[in-house]
Write a structure and sequence with these properties.
The complex is a heterodimer.
Chain A: E1 20-24, H1 31-39, E2 50-51, E3 54-55, H2 60-65, E4 67-70, H3 82-92, H4 100-104, H5 122-131, E5 140-144, H6 152-167, E6 171-175, E7 186-189
Parallel strand pairs in A: 1-6, 1-7, 4-5, 5-6
Antiparallel strand pairs in A: 2-3
Chain B: H1 2-18, H2 21-40, H3 44-65, H4 69-76, H5 79-85, H6 90-119, H7 127-151, H8 158-185, H9 191-220
Helix pairs in contact in B: 1-6, 2-3, 2-6, 3-6, 3-7, 3-8, 6-7, 6-9, 7-8, 7-9, 8-9
The chains are: A alpha/beta, B mainly alpha.
Chain lengths: 205, 221
């Protein structure tokens, strides 16, 4: 439910370790809302999310520690440099970032480490936001339209980053319209689950 | 703890680099206090009698200046979502934001107070009590302000709304702050008023972050 609007119901999906789930559906079908619910912003009206069989709402702190969420907004401050931004994110997550360049390299931002964020292009800002995935190990990645504004090289790099994460047993849920190739991913089209009455939905991964 | 310090360190770095809020608050404080001698006339006795009141009112208004941006910018650019998802409890994150708000606006005002007191001919015997009162009172202003800023997050013209919400709450701080300084001027100790200011701080310190965090959770849903 977003505002007063019911978005979807009857969803039931599972995500194995190393699995990927691609959310599709027309604009406004609730892809972002579903990702935000999974991240723990608010609670579903009915149903729940479970991790290894345990309801995540019961231990919200453990759930926050196991996920990375990259939303529409990049969370950058114009006055901070790329490396400072990344260090802040790492410290916020409770860890120290010894080498920002190493975290920036996979998405090709290493050369921009000392550049203030106000000089970044929108694609570079997006890449910096996605570099957050590298500062802390988390088994669950929730990516909301990560491909927006990325050029083909960056798209390929992001695909490689996701593939490496999955090879190490991590899971990823990504909402995407275009471009990003995620191998053997399950697809969930939210258009197939319009809201129909108040049937409780059991959600799990 | 490292996330708590990270928020403060980043806010201070932003404040220094952009030079905005802190410098603005203290300049507003000095300039607004300077207006009073022009408005009510330069008689030293008259000014000395109202000096502590002028200083408290202008300090209160200066603390309001940067209030609407306490969470607004972080909310707009998505940083607030990251703070919400960090292992740090949101209440402590709010406390960190309050502390950095105080360091950026309250502390410079406190440091500028002796200068303004001199300009307004405040009797030097009242200055220590005035400063002690501000030391206890200005953090309360930041804490109450955080609740107002969190509640008005996303509202249009939030700045005005915050002021309307927060100003009535801050009246007790003003009364006892001025009371402490005036008591010291009239050969009383003023310790009773200071104790009440301390009690206000002890009340606001745990409760305001709780309330503000609840409002932020609502805003982020």
């Amino acid at each position: 439910m977003r505002g007063e609007k019911r978005l979807f119901s009857g969803l039931d999906f599972q995500l194995p370790p190393g699995g990927a789930l691609v959310l599709t559906g027309p604009n406004g079908s609730g892809k972002s809302s579903l990702l935000r619910l999974m991240a723990g912003f608010g609670r579903p009206v009915a149903g729940h999310f479970a991790w290894d069989g345990a309801d995540v709402a019961r231990d919200a702190e453990a759930h926050r520690a196991r996920l990375h969420y990259v939303g529409h907004q990049d969370g950058l401050k114009p006055a901070l440099t790329v490396a400072e931004t990344l260090r802040f994110w790492a410290a916020l997550g409770g860890c120290r970032l010894a080498d920002p360049a190493a975290a920036l390299a996979p998405l090709g931002l290493a050369a921009l480490a000392e550049t203030p964020c106000r000089f970044l292009s929108s694609g570079q800002r997006r890449r910096l936001a996605l570099s957050r995935l590298a500062v802390r190990v988390a088994p669950l990645w929730l990516l909301d339209e990560p491909a927006v504004g990325l050029d083909s090289a960056a798209l390929a790099a992001l695909g490689a980053v996701i593939a490496r994460h999955r090879a190490m047993g991590g899971s990823v849920v990504v909402s995407t319209h275009q471009g990003l190739a995620v191998d053997d991913a399950a697809t969930l089209s939210l258009a197939d689950f319009p809201w129909r009455g108040s049937d409780p939905a059991g959600l799990g991964w | 703890m490292s996330s708590f310090l990270a928020i403060i360190r980043r806010d201070l770095r932003l404040a220094f680099r952009q030079g905005g809020d802190g410098a603005m608050a203290v300049m507003f404080f000095v300039l607004a206090a300077l207006l009073f001698p022009f408005g009510i006339g330069p008689e030293p006795e008259l000014l000395a009698r109202v000096a502590s009141g002028i200083i408290w009112v202008t300090a209160l208004l200066a603390a309001l200046l940067a209030l609407d941006r306490m969470f607004q910018t972080d909310w707009e650019d998505g940083t607030l979502e990251l703070i919400r998802l960090s292992p740090l409890p949101l209440e402590l994150a709010v406390l960190a934001k309050c502390l950095s708000h105080w360091l950026v606006t309250g502390l410079p005002v406190l440091l500028a107070t002796p200068l303004v007191a001199l300009m307004l001919r405040l009797d030097p015997s009242g200055l220590p009590m005035l400063l002690l009162g501000l030391l206890l009172g200005t953090p309360v202003l930041s804490l109450f302000g955080a609740v107002g800023a969190a509640l008005t997050l996303g509202a249009r013209r939030g700045g005005v709304l915050v002021s309307l919400l927060v100003l009535p709450l801050e009246i007790p701080v003003l009364i006892f702050g001025v009371g402490a300084a005036d008591a010291a001027l009239s050969q009383d100790t003023g310790s009773a008023q200071l104790a009440i200011l301390g009690a206000l701080l002890a009340f606001a310190l745990p409760l305001c972050p709780l309330a503000a965090a609840a409002a932020l959770r609502q805003a982020l849903e």
